[in-house]
Design brief:
Structural class: mainly alpha
Radius of gyration: 17 Å
Largest sheet: none
Number of strands: 0
Distance between the termini: 32 Å
């Protein structure tokens, strides 16, 4: 049986924070706290920060970026799921306490639910820089399309407003912006937290 949260060689080798990461077989208490902490941070960014962008689907930027940072610090298989679960629990708690307002809608909940397992799946075999980048791009895209599907469905049955616009008008724009924002969020997160030639690997024969 493989240990839970075993090291992910691809993420560890490409992380810009690899000097702070551990390569031991079993995660330490500190690493567990980091993963949970980044889950809390992701939820706080998703629900409390308003980027003031009137672009449908832009909220994915506040989700993928901190999750990617957590994976750079704790590059382990399954780490994304731990961050995602922590983020979802924290977001629900914030909502119950009256924080966040409209920042925690069905789309945000979907993103927080999907992002962790999706990134873990997309990155499971990633070893090269290209594979890591593609994994993050696909993770951001899939997560945002899932949020689009949930929001579109709920708007269609009248459980969520479409901003005063007919559903068909909203969807024609959202289908494009959700796709672009998902791709940009994944690419930006990967480029900031993961690099092609980390210093430690360059010196390795």
């Amino acid at each position: 049986m493989t240990p839970a949260l075993k090291p992910h060689p691809g993420l560890l080798g490409k992380s810009r924070l690899q000097r702070l990461a551990r390569a031991s077989d079993m995660p330490s208490t500190t690493e567990w706290l980091i993963l949970v902490g980044f889950g809390v941070l992701t939820a706080a960014m998703s629900t409390l920060i308003d980027l003031h962008l009137r672009i449908p689907g832009h909220a994915i930027l506040k989700v993928v970026f901190p999750v990617a940072a957590g994976l750079a610090l704790v590059p382990r298989q399954g780490a994304g799921t731990i961050i995602g679960v922590s983020a979802l629990v924290t977001a629900i708690a914030l909502r119950m306490l009256g924080f966040g307002g409209s920042g925690l809608g069905f789309g945000a909940l979907t993103s927080l639910t999907v992002i962790g397992p999706t990134l873990d799946w997309m990155l499971r075999h990633a070893r090269s820089s290209r594979a890591v980048y593609i994994g993050f791009v696909l993770g951001g895209l899939f997560t945002n399309l899932a949020a689009l599907l949930v929001r579109g469905t709920l708007k269609g049955v009248g459980l969520e407003h479409a901003g005063g616009r007919p559903l068909s008008v909203w969807l024609s724009q959202a289908a494009i912006t959700y796709t672009i924002c998902g791709i940009v969020a994944g690419l930006l997160s990967a480029s900031v937290w993961f690099g092609a030639n980390p210093p430690q690997q360059e010196s390795t024969p």
